[in-house]
Amino acid sequence: MSSVLTRRPGAAELHPVRTRRRWTVTKVTLGIAVPVLFVAVWQLIAVLEWVDPFLYPPPSRLGPGLAALWEDGRLVDATVTSVRRVILGYLLGAVAGVVIGFLMGMSRVLRAALEPFSWAWYTVPKLALLPIFLTIFGFGDTSVVVLIAVTVYFFVWISVMSAVMAVPTGYREAALMLRVNRWEMFRHVLLPAALPEIFVGLRIAAGVSVLMLVGIEFVISDQGLGFLIEQGRTLLLLEQSYVAIVLVALIGYLFALLVKLIGRLFVRWRDEDNAIIPS
Amino acid sequence: MTRLRVLAAALGVGALLLTTACAGDDGGPGAAPAASGGGDLGPVTPVDGCGPGSYIDPANLNPDRDIARCDSGAPAAQPLAEPVTIRMTSASRSSSLAPIFVGMEFGEFEKENLKIEFTVLPFADAMPQLAAGRVDISYGGVEAGMFNAVDQGLDLKWVLGNFVEPKSADLTQPQTGLWARRDIFSDPQNPDLKELKGKTLGSTVGAASSIAYPMDKALREAGISLKDMEIKQLPSTDLMTALANKALDTAWLLDPYWLTAADSPDKYVLVGGQAPGEPLGGFFAGKSLRTDRPDVLQAFTRAYIRTINTHLAGDYIKDEKILAAMMAGTQQPREALTRTPSLTFDWEIRQGTGEEEQKVFIEHQTVKYTEVMPEDRYIDRSFYARAVGHTDS
Questions:
Q1: Residue A260's CB: how many other CB atoms inside 10 A?
Q2: Do B144 and A222 touch (CB under 8 A)?
Q3: Which of A22, A61, A222 sits opposite B232 (nearest CB)?
Q4: How far off is chain A from B251, nearest CA to CA, in Å?
Q5: Which residues in chain B touch residue A52, judged by CB atoms under 8 angstroms apart?
Q6: A202-227 as b/e, with b when 16 or more CB fall inside 10 Å?
Q7: Where does the pLDDT of residue B249 fall: very low under 50, low under 70, confident under 90, or very high at 90 and above?
Q8: Which residues contact B376 (CB under 8 A, 6 or more apart)?
């Protein structure tokens, strides 16, 4: 005896535009509500003195701190310096990582030659290389930018190489049956198949580049947001540290968002979010 | 309905923020400082072995003055009724902590029924813990962070000095100080410090550390100031490298890094030393000792002073037993400790050091305030004065 399973169309099928709009509103609201709730709880905890308000200044104290940094021009200087360093370092590292990653992903010989060496370098904490870079490039921006680039390079290289190697064999064989040349194989098979994974790597690298920037600015710089955080800690001007921490978080988020949006332009065929259970 | 719920939640969170923001921030900037320390320890009485030379008028800033000393073994121990553990921090295991390490090794703290629990922690991180009572005493410098902390109401005071550099006025003697590359001067053999204007200066904490004052003082004697130089902050380990690579023109080199510069007198010249006769750091105590357990701080002070008088009054680095205690305490090899001369320990605090430091910090805006803070807000000389029986204290 056979049975028939009938599924009635849900709201998403019946009213796709309205459903999508509603989800957009919900998503934006949740995205804003969580940080707002976090700030509210932080304020409440500090004001009720469950934690020492000197050590953990409440958000209401960050406004004056922000204003003071803005008025003396240090906020703009530090932000511009940090953003410039991180973008330059990121671009250099990402371009190198994509190129080398593709070459190594496509060539067994290159992989055999470079992979062990590259993995060994990947595991070295890049901050440990700082003294060497300082000796080579001096104490200016160049050392900071190059160190960020090296860090980003390794993250991007791994994700690109892995993405290229993970392209299903069937894709390649189908293309070979159509007698594609090497360029066509790259342009029409490997690149589109690897791009989603590559952009995941690029987004992770965006966050890592900000982490590295702050780490370096802690140690050597007398400019930038990392310096403001460290200086605030040293001078016990903790509002200054907190303002800079919030700004770093904001820059990190915006940077990763920018990479995501760029990724969406290149990977239009991929669902932005396919993990939602259909309503 | 969904939108209404979201709106209601947003309004609720907003109201919470407004309510708490308006509740005020007790304990914030401008909170009143704690009362002066000393606690209820009874009247000050003369101490055997500590004569007139055991207390020097704080206003005496003469670099050639005698350094306060008692006889060996003085002041005598007055053990606490019960054993007490003191939680102490320092940014490093510096050789200037010899009175602690040697005192621990030779049982001077034990005689007072004291045990020292030593933790390495940067002074900036130690100060809030000190004020909160989670740390009892911290070793650090008279830094901008300390003044900011006191200005914001943190209860901590400078209670003991550390050391002075008697030779700091004599720049022909290689030592910790401001070193410059000779090649930056038009006449490298006769450097004119006015030419340092616009040059780079490397320092660990920049214009926020206790050495800002002696650096500024050295430059002012040449007609310029710290403001005229471009300060670069670098770890102390990288300063000499940066100087050698010509990434820096000048640098404040600490022990033992200045030894490298001193080895090449044709390349580097000492242009400024530490403030002659003035300790620029020492021990800072918070509420847990100064107010709650002044007897414990008094015992610590006695042991510290007695260790200096008994074991560290002369050229102690040549004494094998002292050297062994220092090697154990500082965790540095013999060569590192014997390359630099013995320090002249000074438990006293000069009058005006903090004021001069603040002037530099105010000029460089590394402190939040604009008027020099009076000494009684951050200095308490009563413990060391009592320990040597200075009856006028």
A1: 15
A2: no
A3: A222
A4: 14
A5: 27, 128, 132
A6: bbbbbebbbebbbbbbbbbbbbbbbb
A7: very high
A8: B36
A36 near B CB under 8 A: yes
Mean pLDDT of B338-363: 92
Q: Using the predicted structure, report yes or no on whether residue A194 has a pLDDT greater than 80.
A: yes
Q: Give domain A58-266's CATH architecture.
A: Orthogonal Bundle (1.10)
Query: Is A25 an interface residue toward B (CB < 8 Å)?
Result: yes
Q: Which residues of A touch B358 (CB under 8 A)?
A: none
User: b/e map of B369-382 (b: 16 or more CB within 10 Å)?
Assistant: eeebbebeebbbbb
pLDDT in tens, B178-235: 999 999 999 988 888 889 999 999 887 778 889 889 888 888 888 898 889 988 877 7
* Euclidean distance between the first and the last CA atom of chain B, given in angstroms as a whole number: 74
Nearest C-alpha neighbor of A204 from the set A272, A256, A266: A256
ipTM: 0.71
User: A18 to chain B: which residues are within 8 Å by CB?
Assistant: none
The whole-number average pLDDT for the span A91-118 is 93
Both tokens of A119, joined, read: 């993995």
In order, the DSSP letters of B129-160 are HHHHTSSSEEEEE--HHHHHHHHTT--EEEEE
Q: Which residue has the higher pLDDT, B41 or B305?
A: B305
- The answer to whether the pTM exceeds 0.80 is no
pLDDT of amino acid B3: 52
* Contact residues for A116 (Cβ-Cβ < 8 A; gap 6+): none
- The Cα of A207 is separated from the nearest Cα of chain B by a number of Å equal to 26
In tens, the pLDDT along A225-239 reads: 999 999 898 888 889
The structural domains of chain A, with segments of one domain joined by +, span 15-56, 58-266
Is the minimum CB–CB distance between A223 and chain B shorter than 8 Å? no
Yes or no, beta carbons of A72 and B148 under 8 Å apart: no
B52-166+278-387, what's its fold?
Answer: D-Maltodextrin-Binding Protein; domain 2 (3.40.190)
Distance CA(A29)–CA(B271), nearest Å, equals: 62
**β-bridge pairing B344-345 and B137-141:** unpaired
Backbone angles phi, psi at A272, to 5 degrees: -65, -40
Cβ distance B27 to A49 less than 8 Å, yes or no, reads: yes
Neighboring chain B residues of A72 at a CB cutoff of 8 Å: 365
- Residue B361: closest C-alpha in chain A: A235
Q: How many residue pairs from chains A and B have C-beta atoms closer than 8 A?
A: 115
Fold of B177-273: D-Maltodextrin-Binding Protein; domain 2 (3.40.190)
Residues of chain B with CATH 3.40.190.10: 52-166+278-387, 177-273
Instruction: Pick the closest to residue B342 from B108, B210, B167, B160 (CA basis).
Output: B167
